[in-house]
């Protein structure tokens, strides 16, 4: 599945298939930019600082963030070097058009070891998962084969109760990333904020989804033709960071998090200067991000932060 996802992002325009928060409202990236700036200040404004985004897509979030930072906290903009973690050559090209100065990376490993503020929206859900199936008193792991799903005995036993046939999804790449980020922020100070969808507590259930052409597709279809995603297990992600000594804040429902950062206030302010039709579209975008029955509750924010940080906007 790892390869499936990377192949998809490398060859397709994923944004023809789904819409993400930064593409819905410019306020999303602006608020996350201000979050980054305030968090940097609460670290004592270290310079130099790495301002990192994992999986920047079209580059919209970072462009909106940098614009807001330039206006509100230019000192952060001046102290920061922008680092983008992106494997897709075609998305890198799009990002280059929107972001004037940045350094690109295949993974976090090559980002300089300095204080760091990292953002990642809908990045974790794109990382590969493994699926384990409860069988009798043990577990099997299921795999995709040309004949469809096959199950094989598994040495890994999820620590969760499940009925016969119940599925548990494990995302080791996300746990490894959490541990790596945690080690960095403990060593050099900093914070990483991820927004994604999934339950607050570990759960059983098959959440693997394929989307192609804007519609649900067969997850067993050709690997590069559909976007494969699955819910994020925030509990497992946070636990991997805590084990290395980082603080974990959240998860907090996205609607609450963004409202605390000023989603509706800022949107109102922008809308006041627009034509009625455009103003209505802006308000609709904010509601889509914030309302519980839309993206406000299933999506959540979680932050991995160094032990010295005492206030973190949106998590009070
Ligand atoms: N954050 C953007 C894009 C989300 S889609 C937005 O909110 O619109 C996921 C992004 O992560 C894409 O840019 C994709 O190319 C990138 N990506 C997926 N798997 C990756 C991996 N293993 N390493 C680096 N980038 C990856």
Beta-strand percentage range: 15-25%
Q: What ligand species are in this complex?
A: S-adenosyl-L-homocysteine
CATH homologous superfamily classification: Vaccinia Virus protein VP39
> For the terminal residues, how far apart are their CA atoms?
37 Å
Description:
- It is built from twelve helices and 14 strands.
- It has 316 residues and is α/β, with parallel strands linked by helices.
- The strands form three sheets. A seven-stranded mixed sheet has the order 3-2-1-4-9-14-13, sandwiched between helices.
- α7 packs parallel to α8.
- It is globular.
- The relative contact order is 0.16.
- S-adenosyl-L-homocysteine (SAH) binds next to α1 and α2.
Compact description:
Helix 3 packs across helix 4, helix 7 packs parallel to helix 8 and helix 10 packs antiparallel against helix 11.
Could you list some keywords that capture this structure?
four-stranded antiparallel beta sheet; Rossmann fold; alpha/beta; single chain; binds S-adenosyl-L-homocysteine; 316 residues; seven-stranded mixed beta sheet; 39% helix
Write the layout of secondary structure elements.
Elements: H1 2-11, H2 21-24, H3 26-42, E1 49-54, H4 60-72, H5 74-79, E2 80-85, H6 89-98, E3 103-105, E4 116-121, E5 130-135, E6 138-145, E7 148-153, E8 167-170, H7 172-188, E9 190-197, E10 209-212, E11 215-217, E12 227-229, H8 234-242, E13 247-253, H9 254-261, H10 263-271, H11 276-290, H12 292-296, E14 299-305
Parallel strand pairs: 1-2, 1-4, 2-3, 4-9
Antiparallel strand pairs: 5-6, 5-8, 6-7, 9-14, 10-11, 10-12, 13-14
Helix pairs in contact: 3-4, 7-8, 10-11
Bound molecules: S-adenosyl-L-homocysteine (SAH).
S-adenosyl-L-homocysteine binds next to α1 and α2.
């Amino acid at each position: 599945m790892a390869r499936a996802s990377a192949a998809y992002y490398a060859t397709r325009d994923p944004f023809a298939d789904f819409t993400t928060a930064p593409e819905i409202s410019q306020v999303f990236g602006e608020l996350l930019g201000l979050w980054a700036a305030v968090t940097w200040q609460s670290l004592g404004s270290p310079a130099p600082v790495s301002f990192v985004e994992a999986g920047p897509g079209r580059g919209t979030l970072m462009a909106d963030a940098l614009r807001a930072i330039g206006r509100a906290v230019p000192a952060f903009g001046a102290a920061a070097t922008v680092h983008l973690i992106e494997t897709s050559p075609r998305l890198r090209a799009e990002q280059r058009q929107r972001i004037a100065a940045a350094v690109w990376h295949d993974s976090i490993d090559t980002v300089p070891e300095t204080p760091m503020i990292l953002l990642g929206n809908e990045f974790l859900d794109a990382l590969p998962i493994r699926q384990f199936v409860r069988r009798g008193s043990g577990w099997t792991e299921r795999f995709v084969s040309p004949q469809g799903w096959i199950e094989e005995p598994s040495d890994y036993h999820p620590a969760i109760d499940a009925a016969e046939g119940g599925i548990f999804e494990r995302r080791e790449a996300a746990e490894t990333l959490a541990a790596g980020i945690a080690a960095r922020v403990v060593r050099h100070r900093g914070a990483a904020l991820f927004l994604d969808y999934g339950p607050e507590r570990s759960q059983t259930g098959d959440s693997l989804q394929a989307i192609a052409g804007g519609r649900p597709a067969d997850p067993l279809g050709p690997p590069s033709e559909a976007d494969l995603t699955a819910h994020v297990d925030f509990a497992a992600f946070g636990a991997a960071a805590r084990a290395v000594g980082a603080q974990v804040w959240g998860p907090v429902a996205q609607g609450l998090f963004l409202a605390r950062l000023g989603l509706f206030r800022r949107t109102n302010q922008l809308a006041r200067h627009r034509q009625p039709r455009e103003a209505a579209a802006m308000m609709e975008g904010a509601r889509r991000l914030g309302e519980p029955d839309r993206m406000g509750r299933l999506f959540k924010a979680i932050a991995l932060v160094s032990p010295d940080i005492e206030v973190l906007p949106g998590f009070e």
